[in-house]
Structure formats: structure tokens, C-alpha cells
Amino acid sequence: MRLYRINIFYICNMIKRNTKAKQLILDSLKNTKSAVSQEILQKELGESVDRATIYRVLNSFCDDGIVHKILSDDGKFYFAFCVNCSEKIHKHNHFHFRCLQCGKIECLPNEVEVKLPKGYKSVNFNGFISGYCSTCS
To answer: Three-state DSSP class for 1?
Structure first.
């Protein structure tokens, strides 16, 4: 049931301005269980979507609360499909994990609460851990 509600949100969000390229990128992101870079998407989609379009769509999806952007310890940006996010509520206070062997980047399930000093307001959290995943360790 939970997935049904999530899919309704994304379908409604995509109705606003759907294109073939957006749908291909969205399908690819939904079908992967890890975060992907623009380069990974480009390899997967081949010549059906150009590099600039992928970049523009990924950033649009970030603004719409469909994906979140992760800055990895390798200096690249990766994008992960959001669960329970919207354009107004886009919260990702969780760590991300990159396997040094297989390269898979995952969102770890536990949210992290960071207590900031009085008067401070958090806008972005980018916690990152690298090591070996359960398959590679």
C-alpha cells in the first residue's frame, strides 16, 4: 500500500510536464536499488537521451522532490529515488554508503538527528561513509 501512495505522488508530479526523456530517466531511477551518477544513467540510456538533458532532468527531479542529490567522497554527484518526499518537504538526514569494491552507493535507513546551536537552521545534510558492503566484505 505504501508503494502505491508513493507512485501516485510521482505520477501526479510527472503529469505536470512529462516528456519521453523524463520518463526514461525516472524509470531507470525507480528500477535501481542504489544511487546513480549522470554517467551511469548516460551509459544505461545510450543515445536515447543526451548528457545535457539527463543533467537538467536530474536537477529538476531534485527540485520536485523525486530524487535527492548525494555528493560522494569520490567528488561525483549521485542521485537516489526519494521515498516520502515532496517539493515542499525534502528531508534526507541519513548517511550514504559507497562500497569501495563494487562502487554501489546506498542510502542507509536510519535518520540522523544533528543538534545545532540555538538560532541555526539546517538546510542540507550530506553524511557519507565508504567501506565494503555486505556482499563484498
So the answer is: coil
The pTM of this model reads 0.76
Beta bridge partners of 107: 96
**Dist. CA 44–CA 115, nearest whole Å:** 40
Do the bridges between strand 94-99 and strand 127-131 make them parallel or antiparallel, or are there none, so unpaired?
A: parallel
- DSSP per residue over 111-126, as a string? E----PPTT-------
- The residue count of the chain comes to 137
Cell of 9: 505522488
Q: Which one-letter amino acid corresponds to residue 109? A: P
Q: How far apart are CA 112 and CA 131, in angstroms?
A: 19
Task: Please state the rounded mean pLDDT for residues 67-80.
Answer: 89
What's the pLDDT tens digit per position in 89-112?
666 678 889 999 999 999 888 888
Closest CA to 129 of 102, 101, 107: 107
Q: What are phi and psi of 14, to 5 degrees?
A: -75, -25
- Given a cut of 50, whether residue 8 has pLDDT beyond it is no
CA torsion angle 85 89 95 99 (round to 10)? 40
In the Cβ-directed half-sphere of 69, how many Cα atoms lie within 13 Å? 16
